[in-house]
Amino acid sequence: MERLLVINSFGPMASTLVAGLAEKFGYSNIPLRKLRLNKYISGDLSLDSGVMQNRLRENLEAHAKPTKSGGVSVIERDNQAPVRLVDIDRVRDRLHRMQSTRYREISELFSDCHETYSDAVIYKTPVHTPGWHIELCVDFHNFDPARLYDGYRRHFPQVHFIHLHRSFRDWINSLASQAMHQSRLKRRIKFFPPARYRDFQRYEHATSRVPGLHLGFDEMFDTPIEAFAERLASYLGLPVPDVDFRQESYDMYGKLRPYDVAFKRFDDGRSYLQPGTLDRLEAAVESGRIARFPMNLGLWADYVRDMSRYRRTIGEPGK
Q1: CA nearest 34: which of 3, 67, 62?
Q2: Parallel, antiparallel, or unpaired: how do β-strands 213-216 and 159-165 relate?
């Protein structure tokens, strides 16, 4: 029977870490995203729209060229040498057939896309139970959560949900680090903390309304890997894999990393945003004034100051 594992996250919440561990249970873990699955589930896209097939082709074409992908953070990703993830020639004929195939179910189309991408992978030897796939979902909060949850259960034979959570303080600090490392100044200064909090709040509200396994960021790193695997096994109704988890490598969205790297916090303890900035953000949240003028403008100015300071420390003044 087909199985789908939906991992919900928004921003830096270690979703690829959970996917890397889920792969040990037999799920296919590949760097294939943005197939617009939620739009199909919600009815915004019809089964014969061809959008998912086109997104598969675009992913394959992009990953057939040397690209920077995966790792424990965006910073690690940007600092690595580009590599090819797939050989698209392996699946060209199948891609062509998929364009004219009349699919009867969303699950059938989704599984076909994942199996096709998996057969093209060259950065590792994929091993998974056919029909067992992972959806790394980052836009769950953009839909009606109850209807979307029911839609998944209606269209997939067996589906499990994992909802990831992180404290706002740590989350905004990590998210800001990604903005600070943007190569273009325009993209760096567009980061607006009050708007990001609004998105964070929407995500937390949406995921709180549907069943599933809720995992906190800290517990993923603080819990011994063996106990973490047992908890995942219990939720999925599967046996714990007979492997030494500490000797395994983990696929972090196209980059294989050893256990001691994958399960090590990368950005916690690094103050990309200064402690005073983080304190003011938390105080603004608690007071309910984070979105109000001039508080919101002042918080953005705090970020711009911290971003400029950080860019100077790494020897890259604003361009």
Answers
A1: 62
A2: parallel
d(CA 127, CA 27): 8
Q: Note the pLDDT of residue 72.
A: 67
Q: Contact 188/180 with Cβ under 8 angstroms?
A: yes
63 has a pLDDT exceeding 80: yes
Kindly write down the DSSP assignment for every residue of 263-281, as one continuous string: TS-SSTT--SS-HHHHHHH
Look at residues 38, 82, 39 and name the one whose alpha carbon lies nearest to residue 62: 82
238 near 26, Cβ under 8 Å? yes
317 burial level (CB within 10 Å; 0-12, 13-18, 19+): exposed
CA distances from 64 to 7, 59, 60, 117, 195 (A): 26, 8, 6, 11, 35
* Radius of gyration, CA atoms only, the chain: 20
Report pLDDT digits (tens) over 75-132: 666 677 888 999 999 999 999 999 999 999 999 999 999 999 999 999 999 999 999 9
